[in-house]
Design brief:
about 425 residues; Rossmann fold; pyruvate-formate lyase- activating enzyme; OB fold (Dihydrolipoamide Acetyltransferase, E2P); five-stranded mixed beta barrel; three-stranded parallel β-sheet; binds iron/sulfur cluster
Length: about 425
């Protein structure tokens, strides 16, 4: 979501006539877009911001904009006192205050005027920065902002507000615009993306939206994330299975494998529900890859409860497990009402146990790809190898002197490891047109 927000800021600035520079020293405007989902991320953001202070002292005309979750959580007032050298504070997903400041020459934090809105929102006219136009292969498109779920550990609803679906017309216009600028793959984003449209009377569901987006010319691949076990409908599964441009990769977090921990997290489902969901996904979408998120060391999590999570992960054999050690975030229910009683070394031990398990599981899953022919969309060259993804989101590298950016090619998988694969071209490579 932050990548998508940054793209929006960048696009707004391009519309205003600014151009991207990779060097902070050369910039007239620096935007620091922050994530504070964990304390370490907040500390990093403040550290980076402090390191920009000498630049501002040398060049008082430099505009520094602090954007994102840090502003959403702390509020502009507190931050302004703490960081007086910052000119503009913007909440998540809103380039308005910066554009207002630049177009009027004065700070109007949170009070964007009509001009700023025109530049900042630009729905359907997402102009990629010049250095990405014709080069960016895969882009993110938010379809639902915010979240109304309020899991006890999560700070996102406090930062990004309640759930709001974007109008279909804006989403489709934006995807068309991205396709015209060379983008081949889009990922539809939402904190609970399957809830798309539920806040809009008579609007399409996510399955309906996927059907509409599927027809946009130039877009070869469509993904979506993140799903929630309670809202991933069979209609959605059938849509993924039916439409060739929707990729068979699902991100659906379990967070914990113990029912009491799930209640404490206020997730709204049980371990049994999650297992049943995975069985149904596998039945409806053959060859689907599945990713999950897990938090270890949630307040009160006993060894026995942790082992339930271990068992679920060992049994289900999922393609990806994003693991995190619990850290309390100020303002959340778990930080206010629960005791962070699992010691840090124990959290780390549990993390490592799951990490080792998952490495073994994924190694076995990936070995099944050995010798298979897979369609890979190539995105960029990293050193001398092209980097791309299978339909199932497996990372693939291929050595080639040709320019493969944006091409979908059938390749043979010749080596697999837990985190990536190596491919070779077929004897007579042919472009795949969907
Ligand atoms: S559903 Fe996701 S974004 Fe919403 S509160 Fe729960 S963890 Fe946070």
């Amino acid at each position: 979501m932050n990548v998508a927000d940054s793209q929006r800021v960048s696009s707004s600035l391009e519309h205003l006539g600014y151009a991207f520079t990779p060097a902070a020293e050369d910039a007239d405007v620096i935007v620091l877009n922050t994530c504070v989902v964990r304390q370490s991320a907040e500390d990093k953001a403040i550290g980076r911001l402090t390191s920009l202070r000498p630049l501002k002292e040398r060049n008082p005309g430099l505009v520094i904009n602090l954007m994102g979750c840090l502003v959403g959580v702390r509020g502009a007032k507190e931050l302004r006192e703490r960081l007086p050298f910052v000119d503009v504070f913007s909440p998540p997903s809103d380039p308005g205050p910066l554009i207002s400041f630049l177009s009027q020459g004065e700070s109007q934090a949170f009070e964007s005027d009509a001009t700023a809105r025109r530049y900042a929102l630009m729905d359907g006219d997402l102009l990629l920065p010049a250095h990405e136009r014709g080069r960016l292969v895969s882009a993110h498109v938010p379809v639902v902002y915010g979240c109304s779920h309020a899991c006890t550990f999560c700070i996102i609803p406090y930062q990004r507000g309640i759930e709001r679906s974007r109008p279909v017309g804006d989403i489709v216009a934006e995807i068309r615009s991205l396709a015209e600028q060379g983008v081949k793959e889009i990922t539809l984003l939402g904190q609970i993306v399957d809830r798309y449209g539920r806040d809009v009377p008579d609007g399409p569901s996510l399955a309906g939206l996927l059907r509409i987006v599927h027809d946009v010319e130039g877009i070869q691949r469509i993904r979506f994330l993140t799903s929630h076990p309670n809202y991933f409908s069979e209609d959605l599964m059938e849509t993924v299975a039916e439409l060739p441009r929707i990729m068979s990769h699902i991100e659906v977090p379990i967070q914990a494998g113990d029912d009491q921990v799930l209640i404490n997290m206020k997730r709204g489902y049980t371990r049994k529900d999650y297992r049943a969901l995975i069985d149904t996904i596998r039945m409806k979408i053959p060859d689907c890859s599945i990713a999950t998120d897990i938090i270890v060391g949630f307040p009160g999590e006993t060894e026995e409860q942790f082992m339930q999570t271990y068992k679920v992960l060992a049994d289900l054999k999922l393609d990806v497990a994003h693991l995190a050690r619990y850290s309390p975030r100020e303002g959340t229910v778990s930080a206010r009402r629960m005791v962070d009683d699992v010691p840090a070394p124990e959290k780390m031990r549990r993390f490592r146990v799951l990490e080792d398990l998952q490495e073994q599981v994924v190694s076995e899953i990936n070995q099944r790809y050995l010798g298979r022919i897979e369609e890979v969309l190539f995105e960029e060259k990293v050193k001398d190898r092209w980097k791309g993804r299978t339909k199932t989101n497996k990372l693939v590298f291929l050595e080639s002197e040709d320019d493969l950016r944006g091409q979908t090619l059938p390749v043979t998988i010749i080596w697999t490891g837990p985190w990536s694969m190596q491919a070779a071209r077929l004897n007579q490579p042919a472009l795949i047109s969907l």
